[in-house]
Amino acid sequence: MFENHLQIRPSPKLMESMRALGYTSDVAVADIVDNSLDAGASSIEIRGDVSDEPAWLWVSDNGQGMTLTQMVEALKLAAVSSVDARGENDLGRFGLGLKTASFSQCRRLTVISRRDGVTHGIRFDLDELRESDDWSVRRLEESDLGEVPGFQEFSKQEFGTLVCWQKLDRLMESRSSGAAGMGEVIAELRAHLGLTFHRLLAPEDHIRGGLSMVLNGRAVQPIDPFLRQNRAVEMTSPEAIKIGNDTIKVQAFTLPDSSLITGPDAERKDLRDGMYAAQGFYFYRNRRLISHGGWANLGGRRDSTKHSRILVDLPNSTDDQWQLDVMKNKVVPPASVRRQLARFYEVGSRKSGRIISYRGRRVSSPDVEYAWIPVTERGGFRYEPNIEHPVLDDALTDLSQTQRDKMVRALRHLGLLIPYGDIRRRMSIDDEVPAREHQDALVQHVLDVVATLELDLLSPETVGAVLQHIEPFAGRRDLEQIIARAAQAHR
Fold it and tell me: Gene3D superfamilies recorded for this chain (predicted)?
């Protein structure tokens, strides 16, 4: 130690303060799963106590396990520096996850690990730490191991690690009492883990050799936010963006209209009323979802962008540049890449906008008499002919009431037969543009409407004043030219 330097050792009470970093229960468990994956685990089991007085939650894996020395290092705060080089697939960051994640939810942490045929156990209890005011943990005797929840199942393994939480003060805080409270925890966990690790749980994942995750006896299913198995999803090819010596990969996805989302996916909140909140960038670090939803201050959430989701793959070598936080659930895009990401926001906005409204058509206006009007019912929508459109109204005027009613029923029946699926496919997948009427056809249409409405073509201003409020003429910049041609043809 240098002369004139004083040593300031942190008090063990620091651990109480570190409980308030902001972990939620699902984020905390995901941090423990990260450790299992870093240990090479291909199978992870998680179980929560669903008794009337929930007392534990444990995570067990078949990773490579740890020696006693490695376990002690793992329980040190920041044993690994955030600036140290990491393996390409390493999911760690600050060397804090096991401790901070665990103690954000419980007061007693037990770690049991088996490697090379030898099993060791260590207990880290905040109440004991407070009483002793000393940075020490308890090494478990072999006779103690059997009392640890989850050890009976774990003892059958040749190698791996068991992490057990007890004294669940924070985990069960603000929950329903008893088994119902743990049931809430498990339900939230299942959704969070299925989304966070969906690319590692997916059958096509080969980078880590595939991953099996079981939660309270049921497999955790991957939840793909991009619906890549749905043929109606529009996606771009992955694009590489260089940041110094590192490369990030970006891919844009445009989700289909909800009418084309069926089966179990149709029940997902993020694909129904939660789609608005779920739009935006999905940042991944080594294929593990870090942050999702929102546009990273590059644009705001809008109805016209709610179908757009952008996948961004980050290597762990860019952690500092992206300001990855301790909980590994938030990143901030560096200035060097914001312009490129903003471009994807604009692309996503245009593509998503086509899902919301008819491409090439102006937003409905009360001043325009459209030929088709939208009808909302039973949580969906449809279109039906507008019988008050001047052309239809005139055609129906000379009919008897019986004939008129029959014709209206026929027209509305035709509205039910609009091929929405084919229109969707052509406009959103094949990128086709609806054909616009040739000007010659529009000239004839003007002549028909003028005759129907008994307008005077010798007064083009009067004709234009009427037609500009009738579809398909409303909003056309060449309306005056079309009327002039119609007047010439009329002569």
Answer: Histidine kinase-like ATPase, C-terminal domain (3.30.565.10)
